[in-house]
């Protein structure tokens, strides 16, 4: 599945590269002349504009004219109408060699009508006017909105079919890419919602969704008319989305590669981006470039450190970052932005897929281990040695005290009944676990003829734990403990909880049979650890240690 996804996205990237490398366009930003007023003669091809201003002032909503000279390097091909794409602020009429070839809004009447016109507008140049050589371009303009903003006039020349079709083709391909990341975001969000233990899944989902929004907003201008008064809203949205992505991608890598001192470095990086964003707010493309460079430097630092520590797959991520540098330097800004983010997200997806696969293998191994250990414990309960000793004790009690013999049988039946109820469950109520422990102690009281007492403190009866883990610790206490002078072994079971963890403490108050023996994990402790891993992954801690009056076991489960 992963291979197929990489194959399809690689094809889209190749198509985008081919489109971005096309050189069928003549892009110009010619020197412009400005004059306030409104005289139709200013559209003439040979009009002398030498006295006009080289820079535009704030004309508010008054009409002004803009004139420029452009040179077409060759004649148009037959039957292929030429066109010009204009990037400009304001409502305007466009004159080509004194011929009106199109309008964008109604200059001088913007107060009286709804917002009409677009920031980017394409016009057909009549065939007889699109000849090789110098031409006069004149604009009759008014700029009611953002009159203090002089973004200049940009012109792109090509055949009219290219000007219309190429943006639509590019948009359709990039939107397929956006759709892929939108579905990816939904899938991984559901995956995280069903299992909230793995935070990188949520981070990847958020980054995929933000990238989906970035593509939508970046290319919305090609199919929805954006009036120049709303132009900066789109740029602000792009800036915010880029800011969020530039922050989250290094955070993702810092988690995946276990960056030291992450809790300090991540907030510092966030504050740096905030400072960078607000100091350069209003510069838009420049601010976006600064954010992307900052993201690249932060990611390269994190991944470079991971390579130095020989972290798995770090070299793959570092190679991707180096490829992004090439894209940034050799492709147009918009295209390099999309492709760079795409490669980074694919790299993040690759790391996540590998980690999920490893976790799945670990989980399946844990299930197998738990099942094996559970069977071993059940076999231990019915092994001949256990049955022989239990039946021998039962015969003695039946002969000496039939009533207590019946109680012994009932205790034994209750023990096996409880084990039968819980053996296939992942978690059981703590009250059922305590009942199992008490039942077992009741059996051992008849078998060993020792008094076993059980005390509880601060037990939250709403909690659940893996089955038979406390029961196993109780059994260990009987195996390795000796009664005191009153022929008694005592158990104290307590519960502590805070916002970060839940802790269960079982104290066995008894003398140790072999106090100098080295502590080793037997079947019982291995079973406990396997059960904890199955239910809580790595979010647990188990300790077992000697005390002055016996033994203490502590199980900590982190929230």
Give an account of the 3D structure.
The chain is an alpha+beta fold and 559 residues long. Helix content is 52%, strand content 19%. It contains 13 helices and 18 strands. The strands form 5 sheets. Strands 2-3-8-5-6 form a 5-stranded antiparallel β-sheet, with no helix packed on it. It is rod-shaped and about 130 Å long. Residues 1-8 and 14-23 have low confidence and may be disordered.
In short:
The protein has 559 residues and is an alpha+beta fold. It has 13 helices and 18 strands.
Supply database-style keywords.
rod-shaped; single chain; 13 helices; alpha+beta; 5-stranded antiparallel beta sheet; 559 residues; 5-stranded mixed beta sheet; 52% helix; disordered N terminus
């Amino acid at each position: 599945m992963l291979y197929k996804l990489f194959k399809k996205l690689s094809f889209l990237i190749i198509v985008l590269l081919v489109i971005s490398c096309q050189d069928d366009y003549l892009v110009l930003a010619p020197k412009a002349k400005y004059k306030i007023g409104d005289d139709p003669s200013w559209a003439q091809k040979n009009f002398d504009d030498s006295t006009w201003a080289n820079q535009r002032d704030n004309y508010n909503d008054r009409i002004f004219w803009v004139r420029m000279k452009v040179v077409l390097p060759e004649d148009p091909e037959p039957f292929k109408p030429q066109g010009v794409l204009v990037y400009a602020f304001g409502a305007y009429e466009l004159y080509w060699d004194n011929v009106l070839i199109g309008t964008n809004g109604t200059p001088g009447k913007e107060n009286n009508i709804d917002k009409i016109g677009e920031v980017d507008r394409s016009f057909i140049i009549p065939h007889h006017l699109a000849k090789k050589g110098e031409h006069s371009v004149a604009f009759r303009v008014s700029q009611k909105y953002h009159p203090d903003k002089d973004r200049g006039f940009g012109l792109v020349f090509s055949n009219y079919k290219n000007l219309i079709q190429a943006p639509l083709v590019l948009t359709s391909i990039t939107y397929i890419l956006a759709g892929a990341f939108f579905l990816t975001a939904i899938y991984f969000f559901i995956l995280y919602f069903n299992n909230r233990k793995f935070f990188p899944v949520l981070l990847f989902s958020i980054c995929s969704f933000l990238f989906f929004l970035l593509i939508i907003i970046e290319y919305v201008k090609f199919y929805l008319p954006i009036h120049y008064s709303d132009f900066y809203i789109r740029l602000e949205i792009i800036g915010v989305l880029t800011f969020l992505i530039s922050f989250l991608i290094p955070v993702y890598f810092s988690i995946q590669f276990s960056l030291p001192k992450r809790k300090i470095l991540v907030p510092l990086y966030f504050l740096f981006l905030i400072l960078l964003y607000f100091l350069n707010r209003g510069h838009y493309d420049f601010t976006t470039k600064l954010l992307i460079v900052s993201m690249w430097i932060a990611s390269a630092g994190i991944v470079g450190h991971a390579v130095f520590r020989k972290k798995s797959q770090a070299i793959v991520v570092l190679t991707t970052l180096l490829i992004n540098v090439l894209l940034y330097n050799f492709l147009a800004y918009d295209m390099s932005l999309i492709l760079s983010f795409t490669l980074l997200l694919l790299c993040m997806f690759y790391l996540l897929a590998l980690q999920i696969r490893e976790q799945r293998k670990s989980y399946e191994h844990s299930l197998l281990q738990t099942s094996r250990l559970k069977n071993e414990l059940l076999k231990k309960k019915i092994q001949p040695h256990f049955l022989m000793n239990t039946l021998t004790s039962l015969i003695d009690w039946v002969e000496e005290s039939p009533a207590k013999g019946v109680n012994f049988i009932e205790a034994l039946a209750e023990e096996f009944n409880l084990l039968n109820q819980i053996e296939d469950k992942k978690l059981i109520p703590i009250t059922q676990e305590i009942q199992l422990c008490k039942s077992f102690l009741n059996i051992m009281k008849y078998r060993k003829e020792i008094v076993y007492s059980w005390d509880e403190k601060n037990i939250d009866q709403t909690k659940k734990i893996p089955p038979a883990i406390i029961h196993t610790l109780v059994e260990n206490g009987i195996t390795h403990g000796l009664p005191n002078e009153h022929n008694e072994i005592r158990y104290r079971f307590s519960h502590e909880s805070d916002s970060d963890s839940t802790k269960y403490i079982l104290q066995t108050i008894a003398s140790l049979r072999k106090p100098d023996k080295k502590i080793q994990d037997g079947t019982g402790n291995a079973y406990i650890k396997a059960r904890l891993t199955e239910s809580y992954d790595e979010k647990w801690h188990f300790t077992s240690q000697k005390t002055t009056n016996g033994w203490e076991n502590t199980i900590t489960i982190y929230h």
